[in-house]
Amino acid sequence: MDAAHRIRSAHPGVGVVVLSQFSDALFAFELFKHGTEGYAYLLKDRVGDLDELLGAIRAVASGGSVIDPKVVEGLLARRDVRGQREALTPRERDVLREMAHGRSNSGIAGALHLSISSVEKNVNAIFTKLGLENSGDVHRRVAAVLAYLGPDPA
């Protein structure tokens, strides 16, 4: 993670894709601690699909962010979600899981067999329930995933 941050410091416009052996979200949090734009955290044992890797590289190159779905799914399956995160409906969690795959609203609509309008409503509900305001400084889609997976407040 230090190398990723040094690369970004020296070359702010360069996207960074981290291939890790650790599925623990704390490692992903470390990568995203200074912002999410232009970063990807993928598990190296799951990057056998060239299209998936290229999709992540393209997303990062265009300023997006990607977190390996296994990191997200594993934590969703075993996590006792409290506070704001508890307010998410099962459908909103499905949409959030698809966000973590790096899918656009139309991609989410296709994956979940929903209308784009329905996806947009769910995405906005997620942002509202997680307290994520529209700001140019934060990529709300990645912030939503990180807020959902983050440590519980003390």
TrEMBL record:
Keywords: DNA-binding, Transcription, Transcription regulation. Gene3D superfamilies: 3.40.50.2300. Coiled coil: none annotated. GO terms for molecular function: DNA binding. GO terms for biological process: regulation of DNA-templated transcription. InterPro entries: CheY-like_superfamily (IPR011006), Sig_transdc_resp-reg_C-effctor (IPR016032), Tscrpt_reg_LuxR_C (IPR000792), WalR-like (IPR039420). Pfam families: GerE (PF00196). SMART domains: HTH_LUXR. Residues 81-146 form the HTH luxR-type domain. It comes from the Bacteria. This is Response regulator transcription factor. The lineage of its organism: Bacteria, Bacillati, Actinomycetota, Actinomycetes, Streptosporangiales.
